[in-house]
Amino acid sequence: MSRLINKIVFIINSLVAFALLMSYLLPYVSPKTFPLLSVLSLAVPILIIINVLFLLYWVIQMDKKLILSLVVLVFGISHISSLYKLGGKSTNEEEEGISLLSFNVRSFNRFDWIDSKSIPQDISKFVKGQNADIFCAQEFYNNPDVDFSQFQYTYQNFNNDNGELALVIFSRFPIIDEGSLQFKGTANNIIFSDITIHNDTVRVYNVHLQSHKISSNTDRLDTKDSQKLLKRVQISFERQQEQVDLLIEHMKTSPYKNIVMGDFNNTAYSYVYNKVKSEGLIDTFKEEGSGFGKTFEFDLFPVRIDFILIPKEIDVLGFQTFKEELSDHYPISSRVKL
User: How does residue 221 score in pLDDT terms, banded at 50, 70 and 90?
Assistant: First the structure.
């Protein structure tokens, strides 16, 4: 009986291992070419976790079938380090360099998603406590209870008809130029600021790629909703590709080093992440992060969709993912040395 059970388990193991192996190709597959396949990138974390569980199962059984998941996991070690990172240094451990902070503030709980009336004040207090040099905020809403007066320089851009939600770059250092990529037909956008830091100047991009409008509560999804969601995600992936193409085209014209921060609405296993990162950038979480690096509240598995990407020639001194529940996203911070 146990032999039959193990045979069934190995068949399932083989299917999941094959799916994970195929997912390694996703960063190189254009969503416009295979939109449905691109959706698989959202499931990569759970594929990794399931393969780890199968590996442990065969280790306990002392069965050589463990080789299947072991080989697939080793082959995709960079994928695993995108999900979970051992070690790393907290941003608070280093005093030198500059501190970068990114946070999708979800319009400061405007519609009471979180049962708290003090979210705007709590976010203000949190940001002030981090003493960041540059802060990129997504889904910013002009709330009278928000105070970021510690930043001397600000660039704010609204990219929607109602003029309510914005992308904002706050800086302690002078902003000498600024601009927006002004995406059409969406409130999502990318803005940039050229910031002079001591004797150097960098271009900081604040990114908010096309949203999927996915609820963090999976209990709300019935079959009909899931089908609609799948179609919506396919379309948004295609829009993300168009938006990233515009970003890369703009980055190529930059006279300065490019730092890209913000909410990608996609994972580190996606085409858009890989495309941006291939422009000579490194992921600060993968350099100095620790743990799962979860940046978005989702029931099924840890999701990391917020990133701080910097040029390879800039040193990463530390990275931190915060656990404050002030939005459906979690803030991330990295200390870097120009």
Answer: very low
